[in-house]
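Meet today's protein:

…
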Amino acid sequence: MEDATVLVVLLLCLVQSFTVGSNTLWFDPYAGITQFQVTMTVPSLSRGFGAHGVWPGIQNSDDTFVFQSVVSDSRVPGTWQFFVEYCCNPDYQASPVRVYPGDMITSTFSLGSNTQWTDGWSLSPGPAGQAAGQIAQSGSSGNSFGRDTTPSLNASHTEHDLAKRGTIDKAVLSIELANGAAADFGQVQWTTLSITASTTSSWCSGAYTASSGFKYVVSGGASHTSGSSTTCVYNSVTFG
């Protein structure tokens, strides 16, 4: 995978003028993914310039789109906003939810029997969120990535069918920076990461690759095969 080629697709999604970055980790089982779940702890806010985004998502084999759960300060500088997004051609975003450093967001991307992908998410407030009156909440957005029709988009449900562009075969964790931004908000912590793929191979070891020079630590990597699927579970991933 060529970092520059793939990241041109991934970046440009949250705000205009994104530049190619080097802050992405891909998990590739070399088979179609049917479920990807991960919990992200919302990091500290940046005090610098530009726009910052942190997200997990799924990506197709042609590297032409991502379906993602985004935490970004691009909409309201100085605050984190959470929203589900399909990126990028065309680009659709659900209505945002204000989130705070220390909040925990669990995203579950799952493929249904009707070929519909669902991003089901739940938000658990941390101390800062609780102090600000944040409440636990959840929602879901769906996308079939099928035929081209008119989208229906709101805060809790997204349906938009697009031309088929390959199997969903990568789980992605990423930091996006734009407009002169720097990754100055400290570490990003991901926990209870699990990926289920349509293969009987024990694929956990060596299944991930990162942008050149990107600093990360992956803990765990146990696999379990049931029928024609294998699930790989990682205890945690730390960026920075």
The chain is about 5% helix and 50% strand. The first strand starts at residue 24 and ends at 27.
